[in-house]
Design goal:
The protein has 321 residues and is an alpha+beta fold. It is built from 7 helices and 11 strands. The chain folds into 2 domains: 166 residues, Hotdog Thioesterase (Thiol Ester Dehydrase, Chain A), CATH 3.10.129.10; 118 residues, Hotdog Thioesterase (Thiol Ester Dehydrase, Chain A, Roll). The protein is 21% helix and 32% strand. The N and C termini lie far apart (51 Å). This is MaoC family dehydratase N-terminal domain-containing protein.
């Protein structure tokens, strides 16, 4: 990457804070039981409140309702941007400067109220800030943060998400042998968490989630994320990955599910997740956790999802009993 390219990118990003990344977006269709159940199937979610005939939407579905989806003629490189959005031109300009790949690496989600079938979600978004160029394992790039406020068309606040996206110039991909092709879940009793003691310092039993192509693709489709890095091996390798990678919405869904199992379906109020390394087919996520604090009915739980010695994601969840 040349110094002039880096300088042009930094100049572009310096002008973003406070500007809307996307225009006000109203979901194309209402929240539905079908979409909720599809999400639950992909995440292995079994909580009755989310899986019965008249479900509440799991909190970790918050972002997906206003995603543009897979529309005819829409570029798959556009991420969540739609024609006319500032984010569309920012992505295109950065790609032209060599920073052609993107990956969401951190989310801070606050959940204010439940979504139910029939609700129509509205999202309003603005850039917060951007870093200078950083060296990462995937390549050199910039971390860009934005804040999205979610509500319903009736004006009820639903939640807030602060997301960090890495825009980077892909380094050479790392080739590796293909992993196991099985799509079966673990059957040794550790595929789901069990309720534990909610006292500070208490640790929960580990949960093991096989990372398969089916799991990654099902999660991406259920969360309406059609970016090719999550389903197209050739595209993923061209963008610095050894294989397709799990999207952060699936990671959030799996972690939210496990935290719910550990805490006896306590209400999730906040989930802060940081991705440390990609998760690809052939790996197994080993999810561990512990209670950090408990004040009244509010419990803070930390969770870590690792593949062997490599940490995929770390999260802090706040729940209310």
């Amino acid at each position: 990457m040349t110094a002039s390219h880096r300088s042009a990118a930094e100049e572009l990003l310096a002008g973003l804070p406070g500007r809307p990344a996307h225009r006000r977006r109203v979901a194309r269709e209402p929240v539905s039981a079908y979409a909720i159940h599809s999400w639950c199937d992909a995440m292995g979610e079994t909580t009755p409140a989310f899986t019965d005939a008249a479900p509440v939407a799991p909190p970790a579905t918050l972002q997906m309702w206003t995603f543009p989806g897979l529309r005819p003629g829409r570029s798959l490189d556009a991420g969540p941007a739609e024609p006319g959005d500032l984010d569309e031109s920012v992505r295109a300009t950065l790609a032209g400067l060599g920073y052609s790949a993107t990956l969401a690496v951190r989310t801070d989600q606050v959940f204010e109220s439940d979504l139910r079938p029939g609700d129509v979600v509205v999202a309003e978004n603005a850039y917060l800030d951007a870093t200078g160029e950083k060296r990462t394992a995937l390549g050199r790039g910039f971390f860009v943060r934005s804040r999205t406020e979610y509500g319903t068309v009736s004006g009820r606040p639903v939640g807030v998400v602060i997301m960090t996206v890495l825009h980077f110039a892909p380094a050479a991909s790392t080739q590796r042998p293909p992993g196991p092709s099985s799509t079966a879940m673990c059957r040794d009793g550790t595929a789901h968490g069990r309720p534990g003691e909610l006292n500070p310092g208490c640790e929960f039993g580990r949960v093991h989630v096989p990372v398969t192509a089916t799991q990654i693709i099902a999660g991406a489709l259920a969360t309406r994320d059609f970016y090719p890095v999550h389903h197209d091996v050739t595209f993923a390798r061209a963008h610095g990955n050894a294989d397709i990678v799990m999207n952060i919405l699936t990671t959030n869904g799996l972690l939210a599910r496990v935290v719910g199992e550990w805490t006896g379906a306590a209400r999730l109020r906040r989930l802060v997740t940081t991705l440390r390394a990609p998760a690809s087919p052939g790996e197994v996520l080993s999810v561990s956790g512990r209670v950090e604090t408990m004040v009244g009915t509010e419990v803070v739980v930390s969770a870590r999802a690792a593949t062997g010695s490599v940490v995929h994601a770390e999260a802090v969840a706040t729940v209310v009993r």
